[in-house]
Structure formats: C-alpha cells, structure tokens
Write a structure and sequence with these properties.
Chain lengths: ~120, ~110
C-alpha cells in the first residue's frame, strides 16, 4: 500500500526557516515524481512544484520559484519542502502527492495527509 | 501557464440529481486532465485521470469526458457523500495547474 506521511503542523514567526517532510512507503521512491500543493485558508489548490527523487530533478511553478526549495533524501525515502525566510502569507496547508506519469497521465494519485504551517508574529 | 476555468463555482443539488461541472483550458491539454474531490479537512482524492478514466474504487456514478480544451465531470445521481469541492488539474505541461474549484452543496 502506498503511503505518504507528512510531518506535523508548525507554528513559526516571520523570518524563520522551516523544512517539512513527506515520508513515502509502499513503492519505489526513486521512480516517481513527488509534488507539493499549497492550500491557503478557505482557498483552492495551487501546484507548487515537483521533484524526481531518482536524480533530484526539480520543476517549480513560477509563482513559487525562488520562494521555496524542494529536496529529497533517497536513503530514507523522504521528500522535503523548505523555506529560508517565512512570511505570514505562507500560512497554509501543504500537501505532498505522488505523480504518476505513464498509466495515470500525470495525475496526483496518492496524497499525504497535509501539514499545516502557521506563520504569525 | 495554462489557465483552467471551472464552472459553476458552486452548485446546489438534491440527492439523486445529476450534476455537471465543466473545466475549460486556456490552451489544449490533449487528454492530460484529472479531477479530484476534496472534503473539508481532508486531502484531495483522485477521481478521474486521463480525462475519462475512473480511478479504482471510485463509484461508477462519476464520469469524465472531453479532450483538448473542454472537459466535463458528471455525477449521474448525487449521493450524500458526494457533497464536496471538485478540482480539475492539467498535466500536459509545466507548471501543472488547477482549476479554482467547484463546491457541490446540498439544496
């Protein structure tokens, strides 16, 4: 069974750094892209970017390029989303999800449970 | 970026009604379009991929159609558990994008 288990909620102050995680199991971690999706309070889904853990190739949405960093540690089957300096506007729920390009034509097939990030002074 | 516009933004329906949601892309995405269902406080769930293929375990009352720029998600007979927000998403090109969502509410 494919599982994506995300790290717990975080409360941070503006300007602080943060890394949240997404631990994968039940499939070959290095063979599928993992994407990140933001959902601000009461709003819709926004695609942030994806990483291919096999070679750490990344693709970012222009809206998030330079604002966040995606990474992955193949040794522990974990993907990360990182901020170097948080803003209040980063307050949102963040989801990781497994992209499956071939059979599922790029759909986000499996999702983590979400990590709530709250940034407040 | 490819813009996806869903309509309507919300729809009120009674149990048993047929509900249709449309998703229009600003440029062609072939059949690389997926639909998701999201309930409050939960992660989205894949319903349809490749514009018309039903994900395993999804009830047959859900169906998808379309290609190119115009797509439709249909719920043939809405059930109480279907009241949720639905999103389309294109996977034809980067950056991937989502529609703004359609909320299906109880009438």
């Amino acid at each position: 069974e494919v599982q994506l288990v995300q790290s717990g909620g975080e409360v941070k102050k503006p300007g602080e750094s943060l890394q949240i995680s997404c631990k994968a199991s039940g499939y070959s971690f290095t063979s599928y892209w993992i994407g990140w999706v933001r959902q601000m309070p009461g709003k819709g889904l926004e695609w942030m970017g994806i990483i291919y853990p096999g070679d750490s190739n990344t693709k970012y949405s222009p809206s998030f390029q330079g604002q966040v960093t995606l990474s992955a540690d193949r040794s522990i089957n974990t993907a990360y989303l990182q901020w170097s300096s948080l803003k209040a506007s980063d307050t949102a729920m963040y989801y990781c999800a497994r992209h499956v390009s071939d059979i599922y034509m790029g759909a986000l097939v499996d999702w983590g449970q979400g990590t709530l990030v709250t940034v407040s002074s | 970026d490819i813009q996806l516009t869903q309509s309507p933004s919300s729809v009120s329906a009674s149990v048993g009604d047929r509900v249709t949601i449309t998703c229009r892309a600003s440029q062609g995405v072939r059949s690389w379009l997926a639909w998701y269902q999201q309930k409050p406080g939960k992660a989205p769930k894949l319903l349809i991929y490749g514009a018309s293929s039903l994900q395993r375990g999804v009830p047959l009352r859900f169906s998808g159609s379309g290609s190119g720029t115009d797509f439709t998600l249909t719920i043939s007979s809405v059930q109480p558990e279907d009241f949720a927000t639905y999103y389309c998403q294109q996977a034809n090109s980067f950056p991937r994008t989502f529609g703004q969502g359609t909320k299906v509410e109880i009438k």
